[in-house]
């Protein structure tokens, strides 16, 4: 099944990555030179389409005059995320994150900070859509993502493989600042935008941490909270 990648940066990142692109459509006389060069290096020709046609093809994502049609997203197996014998594994697992902007931003942070991959759910969660690719600035094309039916079972498998499962929740009984260096790999579990971690998912965690907050606001956007926690996990691993 084909999928859509819309926007200059997402299409360029797809061309730079191992993404299998079928076609690239651009608005006449508006082809980005970097995209043109990258497409030529992969022997891909650009076809002209009107803005109205690109609007239709982009599935509502902001396309900036360029849309690529690529093969379906290559999800990996859960086991592939932890086959990293040279360093402690760092993975992000998402518990029913439904907002495409949040999912895209979390993927971008995970790729930028060097996490080994992400775990998302097949049901009741956002998938890798054109809007998610756009929100990630094309980071999806560099990410290893496993998609699972049962997150609790996936977390149990990761725990049995030796990884420490760390839940992120405003009601966590430990501060994120209390994380200490560990030789074990770690899985950061981020809850949904409205409800946080579900009870059964929370029970699979070895610990549940919160982000200390000192200002008048009592909550953070899910993607912002995830980025802060990812930074702290990588910092602790490097100490």
- Main sheet? 7 strands, parallel
Q: What level of helicity do the residues show?
A: 25-40%
CATH homologous superfamily caption of the largest domain: SPOUT methyltransferase, trefoil knot domain
Q: How large, in whole angstroms, is the Cα Rg?
A: 19 Å
With strands numbered from the N-terminus, the spatial order across the biggest sheet is 7-6-5-10-8-11-9
Total domain units: 2
CATH top level of the largest domain is Alpha Beta
Low-confidence stretches: none
State the helix count. Answer: 8
- The shape, in one word, is elongated
What can you see in these coordinates?
- With 239 residues, this protein is an alpha/beta fold.
- It has 2 domains: 3-70, 60s Ribosomal Protein L30, Chain: A, CATH 3.30.1330.30; 78-238, Alpha/beta knot (3-Layer(aba) Sandwich), CATH 3.40.1280.10.
- It contains 8 helices and 11 strands.
- The chain has helices at 8-16, 33-41, 51-57, 100-112, 130-135, 151-160, 199-203, 222-238; strands at residues 3-6, 21-26, 46-48, 66-70, 90-94, 117-121, 145-148, 164-168, 174-175, 186-190, 207-210.
- The strands form 2 sheets. The protein has a 7-stranded parallel sheet, sandwiched between helices. It has a 4-stranded mixed sheet with strand order 1-4-2-3.
- Helix 4 (100-112) links the parallel strand 5 and strand 6 (117-121).
- The longest helix has 17 residues, at 222-238.
- It is elongated and about 55 Å long.
- The model has no long low-confidence stretch (mean pLDDT 92).
């Amino acid at each position: 099944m084909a999928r859509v990648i819309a926007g200059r940066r997402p299409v360029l990142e797809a061309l730079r990555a191992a993404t299998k692109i079928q076609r690239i459509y651009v608005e006449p006389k508006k082809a980005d030179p970097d995209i043109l060069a990258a497409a030529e290096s992969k022997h891909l020709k650009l076809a002209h389409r009107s803005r109205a046609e690109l609007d239709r093809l982009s599935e509502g994502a902001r396309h900036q005059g360029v849309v690529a049609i690529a093969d379906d997203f290559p999800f990996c197996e859960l086991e592939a995320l932890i086959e990293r014998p040279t360093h402690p594994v760092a993975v992000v697992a998402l518990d029913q994150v439904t907002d495409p902007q949040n999912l895209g931003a979390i993927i971008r942070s995970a790729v930028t900070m060097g996490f080994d991959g992400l775990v998302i759910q097949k049901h009741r969660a956002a998938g890798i859509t054109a809007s998610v690719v756009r929100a990630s600035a094309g980071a999806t094309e560099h990410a290893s993502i496993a998609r699972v039916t049962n997150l609790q079972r996936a977390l149990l498998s990761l725990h049995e493989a030796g990884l420490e499962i760390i839940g992120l929740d405003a009601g966590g009984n430990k501060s994120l600042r209390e994380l200490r260096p560990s030789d074990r790999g770690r899985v950061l579990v981020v809850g949904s935008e409205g409800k946080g971690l579900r009870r059964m998912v929370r029970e699979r965690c070895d610990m549940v941490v919160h982000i200390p907050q000192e200002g008048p606001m009592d909550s953070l956007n899910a993607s912002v909270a995830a980025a802060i926690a990812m930074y702290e996990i990588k910092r602790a691993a490097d100490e």
